[in-house]
Amino acid sequence: MRYQAAPLPDFAGGARYRGGSARAQGTARASESLGFGQGEGSPMRLDDEEESTNYEMRSGGGGFGLPIGLAFGRGGIGCGGIIVLAILAMVMGINPLSLIGVATDGSGVQQGPVDTRPGGREAGEKTPIESTSLKILGSTERVWSKIFAASGGRYDPTILAFYPGNTQSGCGAAQSAAGPFYCPTDKRIYLDTSFFDELATRFGAPGDFAQAYVIAHEVGHHIQNLEGTLGQVHQQQARLSEGQSNALQVKVELQADCYAGVWAANTQGILEPGDIEEGLRAAAAVGDDTLQKASQGVVVPEGFTHGSAADRQKWLKKGLDSGDPRVCDTFGRG
Q1: Entry's SUPFAM superfamilies (predicted)?
Q2: DSSP 8-class letter at 112
Q3: Is the dihedral of CA 319, 321, 324, 326 positive or negative?
Q4: Partners of 190 in the beta sheet?
Q5: How many CA atoms lie within 13 A of 78 on its CB side?
Q6: Where are the alpha helices (DSSP H) in 54-179?
Q7: First to last CA, the chain
Q8: Is the N end or the C end of the chain the one with fewer CB atoms within 10 Å?
Q9: pTM surpassing 0.70?
Q10: How far apart are CA 129 and CA 179, in angstroms?
């Protein structure tokens, strides 16, 4: 989960990074050691949820990309992408922050179904997972609209851009290997739904609520963008050392986790037994320490950009327990 100024991953999924299978097994073992099994809870009750109309269908192609996360500037953030980015950075010796560029303009893609999709699908035709994703997005819109209205504000929803393989975002190139991310520049969430397969099989976090957590985390970055938090953080990071910048980025990601919990706490009647465990399992699976241990065998806290498994679970649970975004002050501003 992340937001990026240039596309960044949040969950760092990505089927195409080197050594993936071994790392995936390590990540699955790590999530088991945190107290979670590999089973799924009951499906969420989404039948009565309206799908969001704020989406795009994009055509694309194969290719290697960055992890899920958040892009800065007015770039984007994503859940799965962060994990992929982190792993890629470790394997290739790249500074993860160098993958978060500053975006300059929007995508200019029309809202709603556009483009004929690969595999013979007609323009606008949705897969079951796309439909589920839009129901979850619709739920976030209803919850955050009520929260904003309670404070006298108005919620301006994000747009979910579905794409296969790769596409262009307002924050730069988007590639499925990088995972989902939010781009502040064009206020869109970019998602290749194949990431959810990676989340289940490589990272040991199956279930529809784990998928909902990814989307709600990216929506959390959108909330931060509307609040002005992302712009403020980006300005501060330009004046900080790499380690200080990473530490600030962790606060951004943990707050998005907390906002995901706030959304879940305010949903009515859609959660089933086991759903919360699915979300906590997903949060643990994408912790920086979990990913580092799986990819390189050692944990380097100075390199954290999204937070440890324990911290990600802690802040997700804070939002879940309270349902109040005011508890999500990871920056300690009081």
Answers
A1: Metalloproteases ('zincins'), catalytic domain
A2: B
A3: negative
A4: 161, 181
A5: 48
A6: 80-92, 128-150
A7: 25
A8: C
A9: yes
A10: 16
